Structures are given as C-alpha cells and as structure tokens.
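We emphasize that the prediction below concerns an isolated chain of 135 residues; any contacts that depend on oligomerization or on bound cofactors are therefore not represented. The input was used exactly as deposited, without trimming of termini.
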Amino acid sequence: MRPAAAALAAVGAALVIAALATAGGGGGDEPGQSAGRVQVEGTTGEPPRGLAVFAAQGCGSCHSFKPANAQGILAPDLTLSLAGRSEEYIRTSIVAPSAEVAPNYGDMMPPDYAQRIAPADLDALVAFLAEGSRR
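Result of the prediction step, given as a token string:
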C-alpha cells in the first residue's frame, strides 16, 4: 500500500473507532462504552482513547504523528516537536496554541479546542500525545 493510502486508511479506521466509542448501547461500564473490543489491523484490544480523540478532532489532517499513523504536512510533526515536553506544555499547546507558536508555521491552530474537547477527552489526548512522543 502506498504511504498516502496507508495514512488515509489509518485515519479512516480511527474515525470508525471514534464513532463506535461514542455510539453507546453496548453494555459497557459507562455510557458510550461498547461491551465488545474494537480491533485495528496489527493491534489487539482497544486502541487508546486519545487516538480516537486525535482522529475525531482532525489533528492528523494537519499534523504528522507516528503513533496515530498521521502524515499531515501543514503543521509541526508532533512526534518530533513534543519529544521531551511535559504534559502541561502539550495541554497548553492545544488549548492556548498562540501561547508558543512553532517556528516556520505561524499561528494557524484554531484557538477553541478548550471549548470543543471535553475535559476527559482532553486528558486522554494529552496522555496519548505525551506517551507517543516518548517513543
């Protein structure tokens, strides 16, 4: 499979996962949880919740991030730009993106993610980005 097709397939799979995760009615412990496990090719069990948030928010359409198999080119590669950064830095970069703008990219990130992303989802996204940038 060509790299662009592989990236599109991965984003599509992540979007399906996000839709399934929020569909509910599956008998899980919490509302919106599915009793079954969703599988992504090459993995076992449920994918990280942060991956579903990453996909649902469209982060991979602009950013590259290896753990999400995202290959966006409009914004910084998160695998590199977040390496060694704290979770506090990552959270601020999402909810107040103008606080520190990456060189050569300008102030392009939407400023309203603090309103768009539920606190628990933001926590999951930050944890996913922090863990993925440590690899």
